[in-house]
Amino acid sequence: EGNERVLRPRLSDALFFYNNDLKKGLTTEGLEKVVFMNGLGSLADKNIREQKVAEVLFKLVENRIPDQKEVLMRAIKLSKADLMSEMVYEFTELQGLMGYYYALALGEDEMVATAIKEQYLPTGEESALPSTLVSALVAMGSKLDTLIGMISIGEIPTGSRDPFALRRAVNGLIKIAINHSI
Description:
There is one protein chain. The protein is mainly alpha-helical. It has helices at 2-24, 43-61, 69-78, 86-90, 97-105, 110-118, 133-152, 166-179; strands at 35-37, 41-42. The N and C termini lie far apart (53 Å).
């Protein structure tokens, strides 16, 4: 009974957020107001940089997925959209996952939705890797932008300090590149 008293309102809130978010749609509106990192601009700026990185990465694998560039660019454009949702604002651990569900519910291509969901992979040493080449490029674009950006503003890991998980980003990049032969 105690669990029901706690869970029922939380689930009711989640359903309310979900329905509101679907009405609003997957939009990047508002990302320009969210600071990514001092010296690196907003999340909208990061998204634009990730699109440019993805275009370069796409050229490396274009012969393997020549008809997927639009899917890739759409996935990157929407990759941070769920960060503006009420659901992710309330339940931050659902970032990426809610973007996946919203994308599917709103009729986006399944590859776009999967890339949104898998953009943060791998999350650790034993974590899964992005399942498709498009997802891999989205994840790599995000990690490369973060890595290059942080180093450019002097946020370089030390032996005892890596607050932005740049080492994990590098390990993820290597694993993705090997797994997808990039």
